[in-house]
Design goal:
- Helix 2 packs antiparallel against helix 3.
- Helices cover 74% and strands 0% of the residues.
- With 96 residues, the protein is mainly alpha-helical.
- The relative contact order is 0.12.
- It contains three helices and no strands.
- The chain has helices spanning 11-38, 43-74, 85-95.
- The longest helix has 32 residues, at 43-74.
- The two termini are 17 Å apart.
Amino acid sequence: MPIPTEAPIGPAVDSQKRILNRLRRAQGQLASVITAVESGAECRDVVTQLAAVSKALDRAGFTIVSSAMKDCISSPADTTDQLTVDELEKLFLTLA
């Protein structure tokens, strides 16, 4: 599900902000992992930072899928650009 490029309104703004914050956090954490590897940091520290990146990306993915689910529930009659239940389930399971 692509993140909308046009300005979202209402709850969609909050959701998009949360997603972008999580992705930016993951980006910063990944930069730290790269720096740690380049500087020869301890394995434990690198793996701990890498786990934080992974968790941040997972949370962003779950937030994206849950937003799509909320959209389906809040406006089930508008099916022009919505994912089906099967598609949502498949997306959700790819993150699990």
